[in-house]
């Protein structure tokens, strides 16, 4: 009982610190740029921490340990696929993305192709980021249920209210500061505490092999098809996710985005290996755990000393909350920047007069969007049970519908706006149709059908339609290269 009280005290102190950082971040958010992208001025330390925090969530922490428990070292491939996505994004695309000076992925599409219909992509992106928020909320509520003895709904409301509170108060500045703390907490929890203690108690490599056999260290035990699917879904998902791009927008320079992100990718790679090793040691020490998602908490409560177990549980909560808060502000940003203008253009005959409102200074409006989106996420988290299915649908549609037009626009000059819209539609429809035909939304095939049809459509339509106008390409080149336009060239707005 006393041990449980110590663990509870550690979690309560941690949650209180998150709220304090939210209040501190509120004082730094003076305009929309501060609120949504931390003023675009994060340096290497803050940027690396916040990027590492947002990509390492509950799936990478609790899920990664669970996969290690079931498949041994081969359980690392889920997090490794995520780390490869971070590395590719940072080394190849992040400098150009950082220079765009936009807020959303749809803003990039509009800038690259010169099309107004790119806002439709925001609907898919918002569904994806909202489900990330919901799944993370449910994940950390399970820990609150164990510690505090609350039911699921009470735990969801408690955890969700804290995340919504600090996120809506301080925006990206608050999230960046909390991510810094969460990055430190989970680094200590995984690398300094959980890994060495469990590994030592399991007897190291020889002790684990004696109990589990050499197959515990078979890199391919999880299956080749599963490994390929991890890379297709998660690596590509990282490359185009709004929650990840929004962190790239916070970097103060292309160099910070490139090399800070590379450091975060390497960190994620090590984190994935550490999680799998912890799960493998757990399988040797605690055989017979049926639910893989319970492995992390069971190891913390059973194997680790009092106090250390509280820190390790706090590390899990930190991982989940960092993903939840990042996905929450990403959802709100997409809703305000992309979906709301799209809906107004479709259903309102008279344009809204905004002459007295400066969008850059409208922090209150952004805060209301985060608050409203957070309430929706809490309600959904209290209602939904099969989160794996929901987030799988979101990931499949995101990759199947948006990967080709986004990456195609970054690497192929001949790509056209008509092709981008057509490939979005065809890829998303093909993905959903394959899910319905196969009859299993968790199957791996739908995303391949979506990607294949989207790519074919993108290439064929790009080659058979008029090229993107020179004015649009000139502005795009100016942004991505960082070179100013010639004085004779017309001015373009600073943001899209």
TrEMBL record:
Membrane topology: Multi-pass membrane protein
InterPro entries assigned: Na/Glc_symporter_sf, Na/solute_symporter, Sodium:Solute_Symporter
Transmembrane parts of this sequence: 6-24, 45-69, 75-94, 115-140, 146-169, 181-199, 219-241, 262-286, 306-335, 368-384, 390-412, 419-441, 447-466
Positions in coiled-coil regions: none
Chief localization: membrane
Localization (cell): Membrane
Family: Belongs to the sodium:solute symporter (SSF) (TC 2.A.21) family.
Protein name: Solute:Na+ symporter, SSS family
Organism of derivation: Rhodococcus koreensis
